[in-house]
Design goal:
two-stranded antiparallel sheet; 15% strand; seven-stranded parallel beta sheet; 10 helices
Length: 312
């Protein structure tokens, strides 16, 4: 990002004000980022490079400075599209990636948990994105659902994985270490490595990860929920279809998705959302969730939708 001189004259152009950060800001390691960021995974399914470029540029223009991606998203397509659309990157853009899985020969994902594999994935992300350093790298552990479960030689001890990621951090290739899909015991064991964020499934309808969130609160760790609108799996509850959420949305003049996202922001001030889309209109709806103010009565209603430790 180009910075202007501190001197000014009558002929200087009027500086363009920086856009407000959607949802305000919170800490992600050593970065202050918008509390509503952008998850790049859905860019794989967008209709083409031009549409993906338009969405990504709209993301940055709207004040988002936290993009979550992975080299295994679309077998590299998402990272390629990010680089095409945004490089050279704004100085304050936090590019966050994930390791622990890779693309298999049939196109599906396979575990890649061994330390050497984690290093290769970090290097692949750096190369594809055209950067020397990632803001954060999240380790996707594969010992609890949902998704892949590691077996055989892919069942790697946490200490070995964190040692490799810590070495990469010491080399300046990543700024912070995060975890994805972990339980409270795993997070507690990883704390000495300096964990800066946790990505777990969590929503107004699913509080099963509440013990992990409690640890994040205690240690000031950013909380990045995936499935923030409820389960993505058929037949399981979705926040946008919940009668209480729908009724509150009508009352507040918002969409059900915005109400569910606003509840997450209100539930913990270290929450960072990364909703993804390949549709510019949907992008605007997601970002506008940061402007939804839930009255105390609405928060109380939403708090009652699911008890900690179970899916409601």
């Amino acid at each position: 990002m180009t910075t202007s001189s501190s001197s000014s004259s009558p002929s200087d152009p009027t500086p363009t004000p920086s856009p407000a950060r959607p949802g305000g800001t919170a800490k992600l390691g050593d970065h202050a980022v918008a509390r509503i960021g952008f998850g790049a995974m859905q860019l794989e399914g967008s209709t083409g490079d031009r549409e993906a470029t338009a969405v990504l540029r709209a993301v940055v223009a709207a004040g988002v400075n936290h993009i979550d991606t992975a080299q295994f998203y679309g077998a590299g397509i998402c990272n390629d599209r990010i680089r095409t659309a945004l490089a050279p990157y704004p100085d304050d853009l936090a590019l966050v990636s994930k390791v622990g899985a890779d693309n298999g020969p049939d196109g599906g994902l396979v575990p890649a948990q061994r330390p050497g594999e984690l290093r290769r994935q970090v290097e692949a992300n750096l190369t594809a994105l055209g950067v020397e350093r990632l803001a954060v790298v999240n380790l996707r552990r594969l010992d609890i659902p949902p998704g892949l479960i590691a077996e055989g030689d892919q069942r790697v001890d946490l200490d070995s994985q964190l040692a490799e990621l810590s070495a990469l951090r010491d080399e300046g290739k990543l700024g912070g270490i995060g975890l994805s899909a972990v339980d409270a015991d795993t997070l507690r064991a990883a704390l000495p490595a300096g964990i800066v964020c946790v990505q777990n499934g969590y929503s107004v309808l699913d509080r099963s990860a509440e013990p992990v969130l409690d640890l994040c609160r205690e240690h000031g760790i950013a909380w990045v929920p995936f499935f923030p609108l409820g389960s993505a799996f058929p037949g399981l509850p979705k926040a946008t279809e919940n009668p209480t959420v729908v009724a509150l949305a009508t009352e507040l003049g918002a969409t059900p998705a915005q109400v569910a996202l606003a509840w997450l922001l209100a539930h913990y001030d270290g929450t960072l959302l990364i909703p993804g889309t390949s549709n510019p209109a949907h992008l605007g709806e997601n970002l506008a969730a940061g402007d939804v103010v839930l009255p105390a009565s609405a928060i109380t209603e939403l708090d009652g939708l699911a008890a900690p430790g179970r899916i409601g």
